[in-house]
Amino acid sequence: MKKDKYLDMISRETKEMYGIQFDVGRYKNIIHLYLIEIPPQHRGVGHARLLLHLLTDYADREQCIVTLHPTTGFGSNYIRLTKFYQSFGFVFNRDDNYRDDICEIMYRLPRATEKEN
Fold this sequence. Notes:
The chain is an alpha+beta fold. It has helices spanning 5-18, 47-62, 78-86; strands at 21-27, 30-37, 65-68, 91-92, 106-108.
């Protein structure tokens, strides 16, 4: 994975301001979301939603696929977490959405941006 200045800036600033772990990596046209961990005192105010908006908007501008592995390792409810990701356009990598070039559990294809329309 290569460094991406925009994604690194978001990660660094959210860590400094709120102690939020936002770990992402980019390789060519794929951005992998490794981790969003919100400290208990900052939960429930929309930080994760804002980060996902920033990430998906950027991915759309750059025409990148975003991949992730939802996990309950940090106390999340799996069903609630996957529904959260689905609200941003992520799909499970199975059945009609299966892609053999993606090994992660969920992915999101880039959407057309206004610039392209």
